[in-house]
């Protein structure tokens, strides 16, 4: 495990797992949304693809995303391990709902200095609505990729519950 891609729907715990793998394995962690969003109003970083390509070219890393379309294949081709947090819909929806509520209440600063705002809850691209709509399609995309011959060399660790993820993580031994 030298180049690890942690995938799943919003709320599955990708960032949490990626940070845990960073600590456990001593791999540098790159938060995909922090790379993608560069400024106010969720502006996209114009150097996002180039930055991601540079980081993915390193010998070891952990990324916490299926990958935005501009870099998705690059990450999957460079990874050696996929950790798929394939939790049930009720688990991820509860998590993404609570996370968005907390962020809205506390006005927590996010990527590029942005914040989740109450009025954004009415937009179709709000994380809660996005996660609900994308649960099935995102799961199907990950399943398709894990069975795609192009990515056959990848080690795929599919974790179907938070308990399974915790057990797997606690049983991992750091690489020499």
TrEMBL record:
Keywords: Kinase, Transferase. It comes from the Bacteria. InterPro entries: Cytidylate_Kinase-2, P-loop_NTPase. Gene3D superfamilies: P-loop containing nucleotide triphosphate hydrolases (3.40.50.300). GO terms for molecular function: kinase activity. The keyword Kinase applies. PANTHER family: TOXIN, YALI0E33011P. This is Adenylate kinase. It comes from Streptomyces subrutilus.
């Amino acid at each position: 495990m030298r180049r690890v891609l942690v995938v799943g729907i919003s709320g599955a715990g990708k960032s949490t797992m990626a940070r845990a793998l960073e600590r456990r394995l001593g791999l540098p962690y790159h938060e995909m949304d922090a790379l993608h969003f560069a400024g106010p109003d969720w502006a996209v970083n114009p150097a996002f693809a180039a930055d991601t390509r540079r980081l993915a070219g390193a010998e070891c890393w952990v990324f916490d995303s299926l990958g935005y379309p501009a870099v998705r294949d690059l990450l999957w081709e460079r990874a050696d391990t996929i950790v798929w947090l394939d939790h049930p819909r009720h688990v991820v929806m509860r998590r993404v709902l609570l996370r968005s509520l907390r962020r809205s209440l506390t006005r927590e600063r996010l990527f590029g200095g942005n914040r989740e705002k109450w009025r954004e809850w009415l937009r179709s691209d709000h994380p809660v609505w996005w996660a609900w709509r994308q649960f099935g399609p995102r799961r199907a995309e990950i399943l398709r990729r894990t069975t795609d011959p192009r990515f056959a060399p990848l080690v795929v660790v599919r974790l179907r519950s938070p308990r399974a993820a915790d057990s797997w993580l606690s049983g991992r031994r750091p690489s020499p």
